[in-house]
């Protein structure tokens, strides 16, 4: 075994696919790229995400209590990075990157029509925001874009390198204890 710096832990445990966070501040929509998120519980579906006050989306999420988490396919990797390299205070990212918006059902932030999945969220708990910039979101609606040909999720390794999901293994028949969660997306 080779010892590595514990400060690199995030590069090992990056929780899941990169997501794009859509918000609306009452004037215009914005979007940011985010990798720091995690499932907190199944029911109701709660998601933890870190968005700091240095991000333009922070104020919109903090003030409105609403956002959309959109999961892009691997084919959007360059756009995901480019969106993360600029600020909504300086540019209309939807216009600059030609991202398609779709109408949400329960929140004011737009869905991202180019993404594989969209999850409409409301802030469920903000007690850890001041200390950790950690919002606990409750999923209130979810969408699947079945027309997308690229189905691989994009994972960031924290240093500008990415991987995309590859082969999937279906072991649902072995999940005897958690059958209630076996639903196709």
Automatic annotation (TrEMBL):
Q: Which residues form the Flavin reductase like domain?
A: 11-164
Please provide the record's keywords in A-Z order.
Answer: Flavoprotein, Oxidoreductase
Q: Supply the EC number(s).
A: 1.5.1.-
EC class: oxidoreductase
- Asked if the record carries the keyword NAD, the reply is no
Q: Name one Pfam family in it.
A: Flavin_Reduct
List GO molecular-function terms, semicolon-separated: oxidoreductase activity
InterPro entries from the UniProt entry: Flavin_Rdtase-like_dom (IPR002563), Flavoredoxin (IPR052174), Split_barrel_FMN-bd (IPR012349)
Cofactor(s) recorded for this entry are: FMN
Q: What family does this belong to?
A: Belongs to the flavoredoxin family.
Entry protein name: Flavin reductase family protein
């Amino acid at each position: 075994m080779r010892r590595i710096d514990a400060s690199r832990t995030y590069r090992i445990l990056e929780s899941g696919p990169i997501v794009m966070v859509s918000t609306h501040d009452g004037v215009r929509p914005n979007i940011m790229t985010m990798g720091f998120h995690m499932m907190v519980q199944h029911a109701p579906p709660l998601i933890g995400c870190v968005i700091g006050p240095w991000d333009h989306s922070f104020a919109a999420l903090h003030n409105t209590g609403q956002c959309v988490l959109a999961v892009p396919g691997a084919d959007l990797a360059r756009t995901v990075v480019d969106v993360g390299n600029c600020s909504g205070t300086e540019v209309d990212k939807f216009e600059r990157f030609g991202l398609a918006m779709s109408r949400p059902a329960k929140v004011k932030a737009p869905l991202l029509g180019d993404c594989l999945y969209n999850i409409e969220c409301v802030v469920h708990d903000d007690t850890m925001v001041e200390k950790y910039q950690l919002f606990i979101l409750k999923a209130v609606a979810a969408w699947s874009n079945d027309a997308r040909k690229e189905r691989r999720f994009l994972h960031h390794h924290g240093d500008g390198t990415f991987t995309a999901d590859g082969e999937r293994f279906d072991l649902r028949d072995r999940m005897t204890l958690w059958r209630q969660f076996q639903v196709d997306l």
